[in-house]
Amino acid sequence: MEKGHRPIGEQAIGLMRVDRDGRILDVGCGSGWATRLMAQRATEGRVVGIDISDEMVELARSSSGNMPNVEFHVASAEALPFSSDEFTHAFSMESLYYYADISAALTEIHRVLRPKGQLAIVVDLYLENVASHQWVEQLNVPVQLLSSSQYRMLLETAGFVNVNAGRLYDRSPIPPTYTGSSFKSYEDYVSYRRAGSLLLTCEAGK
């Protein structure tokens, strides 16, 4: 996951303008690689990663032992175990479309963000990226395939303002061949790379 998504994740995190004393929530943290990247910016703050998988949380903890400003919890995005207005930033990389109730997750993220707190969401599986649609059948769990405009509507309904949707692109050269298993053909892989990742940014309304 880190190898495939880090080029995009680094760009998204850079756009978040994290302060040294930032309090950041990483929603769906997986192994914690993005959590650790943000912790390198919020050196005097607090970065919290949550994931529903206890195995991933344990891996994240074991990989972050030398970072005192990082912590991880097993938790669902639809019921966050944090106080209201607790965080200045929230980040979600390739996890939102797994949630059964995206509206509930976004409402919870809004609750734990302070007013004008920043949220950045990155997804590769979205309606406008046609090559990614084949993942719906490949994944072993249910996922939601939404458009950019549907995500915007969900964010606004949850109380977020200044919602923007854009694309981020992996700047590394596209290889001449594809040997992975995520796509049925080289052409699909090229189409996926050229479509880019969907980046949604917004602020928590009052």
Short account of what is shown:
This protein is an alpha/beta fold and 206 residues long. The protein has helices at residues 2-15, 33-39, 54-62, 102-112, 135-138, 148-157, 186-195; strands at 23-27, 46-51, 70-74, 87-93, 113-123, 160-168, 197-204. Helix 1 packs parallel to helix 2.
Structure write-up:
- The protein is 32% helix and 25% strand.
- It has a single domain (2-204), classed as Vaccinia Virus protein VP39 (Rossmann fold, 3-Layer(aba) Sandwich), CATH 3.40.50.150.
- A 7-stranded mixed β-sheet has the order 3-2-1-4-5-7-6, sandwiched between helices.
- It is an alpha/beta fold and 206 residues long.
- The chain is built from 7 helices and 7 strands; from the N terminus they run H-E-H-E-H-E-E-H-E-H-H-E-H-E.
- Helix 1 (2-15) packs parallel to helix 2 (33-39).
- Strand 4 (87-93), helix 4 (102-112) and strand 5 form a beta-alpha-beta unit.
- The protein has helices at 2-15, 33-39, 54-62, 102-112, 135-138, 148-157, 186-195, and strands at residues 23-27, 46-51, 70-74, 87-93, 113-123, 160-168, 197-204.
